[in-house]
Structures are given as C-alpha cells and as structure tokens.
Amino acid sequence: MRHLVTSAVLALIAGGAMAQQTSLTLGMQLEPPHLDPTSAAAAAIDEVVYANVYEGLTRFHADGSIHPGLAESWVISDDGLSYTFTLRSGVKFHDGAEFTAEDVAFSLNRARGPESTNAQKALFAAIDEVTAIDDTTVEITLERPNGALLFNLAWGDAIIVDESDVETLETTPVGTGPFKFSDWVQGDRVELVRNDDYWGEPVALEQATFKFISDPTAAFAAMMAGDIDAFPVFPAPENLTQFEADPRFKVIVGSTEGETILAINNAVEPFTDQRVREAIAHAIDRQAIIDGAMFGYGTPIGTHFAPHNPAYVDLTGYSAYDPEKAKALLAEAGYADGFTTTLKLPPPSYARRGGEIIAAQLRAVGIETEISNLEWAQWLEQVFRGKDFGLTIVSHTEPMDIGIYARPDYYFQYDDPVMRAMNAGLESMTDPDDRAEVLKAMQERISSHYVNAFLFQLAKTGVADARIEGLWENSPTQATDLTGVRWTE
Description:
Elements: H1 2-20, E1 23-28, H2 43-49, E2 58-60, E3 66-68, E4 71-76, E5 82-87, H3 101-112, E6 127-134, E7 137-142, H4 149-152, E8 179-185, E9 189-194, E10 207-212, H5 216-225, E11 230-231, H6 240-244, E12 249-264, H7 274-283, H8 286-294, E13 299-300, H9 323-332, E14 339-345, H10 349-363, E15 367-373, H11 376-385, E16 391-396, H12 417-428, H13 432-448, E17 453-465, E18 468-469, E19 486-487
Parallel strand pairs: 1-10, 14-15, 14-16
Antiparallel strand pairs: 2-3, 4-5, 5-7, 6-7, 8-9, 9-10, 11-17, 12-16, 12-17, 13-17, 18-19
Helix pairs in contact: 7-9, 8-10, 12-13
C-alpha cells in the first residue's frame, strides 16, 4: 500500500511538472496602449499579438523572409497590377466566425480608407481595389506596380479582422492565430491561451503570459527569481554578463530593424535650418551613447536603414563626431550663444540613458535641453501625434521603413519633394537591383540633409531559461512570435 501511495504521489508530481512546461511567462518593458495593431504605432502591440493572435495574408519568418499566411498562394499578373490570392480553407476566427475573402476586403479597405487611423496607411497607397471573387479568392488591383506589396502585407498593420469585432479589438482582440486572447490586467499582464481550433500547425504552449516590467532592476530580479521565463528584449544590457555566467540562462543576441535616432522636429525653429540639424549631428558621439546607454550593444548608423540589409550604405562619415564643427555651424546659423529646446524621452532605457548622455554632448556645444520623461502613451500623444517637441529619442522598429521620410505629416515633419519622388519610384519597381539603387540614394538624401541624428541600430538582447527553444534571435519585425517556442524538458 505504501508503495502504491508513493507511486501515485510521484505520478501527480510528474504530471504537475509536465503541465508547467506548457506555459510561458515573458517579460516586456512597455505595456501596449491597446491590442489593435491596425490603429496605433506602438511596437508593444505587435510584440504581443503578431503571429500569435492575428495573422495577415503573408507573414515574416525569423530570417526576415516573406511566407504565406492566410493566403496559401498567389498569382501576379504580367503587368504587376493584379495580385490574385488563394486563401486557406477551414480557417475560423477565435469567436467561431468563418474566415472568407470578404474579411480580407474589409480589413484592407478599412486600413486604407479615408477614416483609417492605421499608423502605416502608406503601405496600402498603391491599392486601387480589393475584390472578393469567392470565399477563398481575393484580388488586389493596384494603381501602379508595387514591388513591396507582399512585404507590406506581412506587417502587423495589415492583419485580417472580422468586421463584427472591430469596435472591441483594442481591449478584446479576435484573430485567426494559434493563440486566443484570455485576459488583460491593466498595468500588469496580458494572457493568451492556445487556440485548439487553429487551422495550422498546433503550437506547443498551452498558455503564454506577457508580464510588463518597466524598471530594469526589477526585470533583472524577476529573471533571477524565476518569475519570468524569458525576456526577449531585456532592458538592462549591463546584466547580460551575469546571465551568461549562470547555466540556468541563455543570452540571445541578434539584430533588429530598430533604427535608434535623435529625432528632430524639422518644422519648428531653429531646426528648419539645416545647419542647426547638422550641428546637432556633429555634436553627437555615437559610440559614447552605445557604450554608456547600451553597454556596447549596438551598431553605429549614419542613416535610417538597417546595416544587415544588402542595400545598406555606411554614411556615418556625414555626421562624424566633431564638436568644433558643430559650434561653427551654430555660429554660422546665428546661434553662436546656443539655444534651448525640449528633449522628450519615452520609457526605454536606450532613450532615458541615451538622453542624459546626449543632453551633455549638446550642452558642450551650447545647446541646452529641457528633458521630459514621458510614459509611452504620453509620448504617442505629445510627440508622435501632437508633434509637440524639439528633440526626442526613439527606435523605429518597423521593417524597411525609410518611406516615412516621404511623408511630410510624419512626426519629424521632413518635407522634401525629391524624397517623395524617389519613394514613389521605389514603390513602382520590382527589380531588386533597381530597388537597391534607389534605396541607397534615399539613404544618402536623408543623411546629407541631416533630417535626424542617426545613432545606432538597436541590438536584440534577450535572456531566457536555458531550457526554452524557438525564440527569435533576430527581429525582422516587431514581434515575439511564439509559434515555434517550446520547453525542451
């Protein structure tokens, strides 16, 4: 009898241990403002829901390549003006509604329509019409060829939703993905559960919890205590060596699409003067920021483009650290005695720590900054939407987003007809070599105009329990894709 009782207890313990290995708690520094990626620019939204809850016609894989999503295949017309997508059959939304071509037409028309609040509405500018041919066939016709259409449709801003759910997507997301939304405790966590009716390959995890920890010290403590299983973008790079020395953990260092910039409001004085913007660029010591704010993690950039992209051009020479040249440019522009401006900083450590370093570097050439530390929602409201700032620091994590410099109404308000013409030409090109040449010209244009001070490409520095596999090493888009994540024991 004693043997039987002991065996039963051991079985219960083993069963409980196995059950624990199908759940995962992940740390995030920023809490999303809401959970609808089609109506806000915050990367934190996609970090929770991209590929997990919501899906698009196409999707990014870990290496940045484009793969089928809700569309299983497509045919492109000879003139490049028509894309006919064959959709997957048997797909359902999490509330049980059938997924059809009408949902695709609705979603894309909503994203590009006159009332759209989509932060990346420009992705859909070339679309002329979206037509549901039948339940599993949709045709997208274009006003002009767009060689980036399949890439654009992979963004989180292009996910497919059911019209009946749009009013509540911000708080109760309903998608077609392998995970379903379960709960959101504001200020603490978002919980997802496995979608057992998923059309595709079942995921290994039964439950995933995204826990919001804004303070780097608290993030370190939570990892060390085992309260967090993985922190895909760990906010305290100074602690990585401690994790590397601890066999319980593994450190995952990769690249991101995050161009970290000192953004300049080009539409307000004195930044309308290119000489002032150039002075700021020469006042900045990038490596000091990388070392001081990121503990050596990051790649210096001189333009708004990811160094791992084949079309990248190293233009850091345009804005080499030269404080004497910065002072001379300021004097030439009529600011020999300097000036004072605002420096509004969102929560990430690259911004807060980097902001202190940059403020000191600018002070050395005569530019005083009034620092305001903003919460993410405040930054989106004041800076991104309200354009009420002089300077700010932010990492642009959207993939291949140099096209934002062709949008005069974008938050840094750079208005250049040549840039708009180049971007329009790029969008119409399908030949990779031709596109690369235009991309190089666009990089040089914004670098030589000193639109912003380009700092560094954000490294992806993650920490995870050593038994976890499948987390992305690199970030080709702003996502924490859990579809391939599992515990190894």
